Amino acid sequence: MELTSWLALAAICVMGAISPGPSLALIIRNTVQGGRGHGVATALGHGLGVGIYALITALGLAILITQTPLLFDLIRYGGAAFLAWLGVKALLARPASGESGSEEGHPPRGRQGAFEGFMVAFLNPQLAIFFIALFSQFVHADTGWREGGIMMLTAGGIDALWYVLVALVLSRGPVLAWLKAKSTVIDKVSGLVLLGLALKVVI
Q: What does the DSSP 8-state code read for residue 140?
């Protein structure tokens, strides 16, 4: 892939990553509830999900998803169910404690955050549509694993770096302290956003 083409691809991926949506709501909530490590793990899991979708699309498999209604619907409804589950979980969450959010007594939390981030990305069929529209400008007949890997690392890496940055900024002392004080409001708003997005996916 030529440098100019890669720069154009990277610029569009940046714009896609910073667009607000369920991913941002999840990163904010997990950072407030679990601290820096939980938020970063969620960001990395989300980046992995985005990267895998990018690779699938680059190799032409995402076209199969969009042209096979049953498979597409399974992914769409699975994603909606997972978003709804996260929304209900946020609405029922207890207020965040005033502790520092250390991962030390909660070893599974990082894995949980990574899993949630991955699933929010991977069960989002709109990613397939987005990447098909985007990669149609860059994929050609002889696109193979090498260029597909470049697209995967570009899309997934940019996504992960952006959300890691968000988690790190939110986990700084004064910012996190303020967010913890407002954690109940954040949970309710995040839960409603996630439920709304789940409903939108179904409709």
A: -
The amino acid that residue 29 corresponds to is R
Long-range CB contact pairs, 14-20, < 8 A, 24+: 14/158, 14/162, 16/130, 16/134, 16/155, 16/159, 17/158, 17/159, 17/162, 17/163, 18/162
Alpha carbon distance 38, 27 (integer Å) = 9
Alpha-carbon distance of 178 to 180, in angstroms, equals 5
Tens digit of each residue's pLDDT (9 = 90 or more) over 165-195 = 988 988 776 766 676 677 678 778 878 877 8
Name the DSSP letter for residue 20. Answer: -
Contact indicator for 110, 37 with CB cutoff of 8 Å? yes
The model's pTM: 0.71
Residue 76 banded pLDDT, cuts 50, 70, 90: confident
Q: Which pLDDT score, from 0 to 100, does residue 180 have?
A: 65
Burial of residue 8 (number of CB atoms within 10 Å: 0-12, 13-18, 19+): middle
- Nearest to 84, CA basis, from 199, 203, 195: 195
8 A C-beta contact, residue 182 and residue 44: no
Q: Amino acid letter at 124?
A: N
